[in-house]
Fold this protein.
Amino acid sequence: MVKPIYLVMGAIPVIIALLISIPLITKNEIPISAANSIDKIEIEYTKHQLKKISYGVTERTGSQKTEILLIKNNGDTKYSLTDKGYLQPDIRSKLDEKTLNKIKALIKETGFIAIPSESFTILENVTDYQKSNVKITLNGRTNQIHWPEQNATSGFIPPIITMVESELDEIILKISE
């Protein structure tokens, strides 16, 4: 039979491991500490609201609305909007350091820069949909990804892409208010 002292001594490392791992597992944010001050990042994010227009035998896809967000390494941003063919005045802004580090950390920690550029086919019966594009240059490495909204394709869009998209959409919302 095992002595109780051995059970207590064996339980101590298990308890310590649980105390360390539970906060790490339940935390749903990427640590901002992943972003270094020496990291150089540039982001170009484009959203198109597209519509298929049929001319009998032929059809054409045209953009109803286009939004472009440029983020420079120092936090300078430029937001451009073209709505129904009319270019609106650009909005220039500057991201605070916390937001810039958050997006840097998200891109670095998730391996976004290493995601292969896939081609998502659009379903035939979809006429109105949103198509997005993000081009990220991180420390000299560039990756560009194009994707439609999930209900316009039969392909699976990785969650990391939608996470980056929602962060960039949030920045657009703050800038355009």
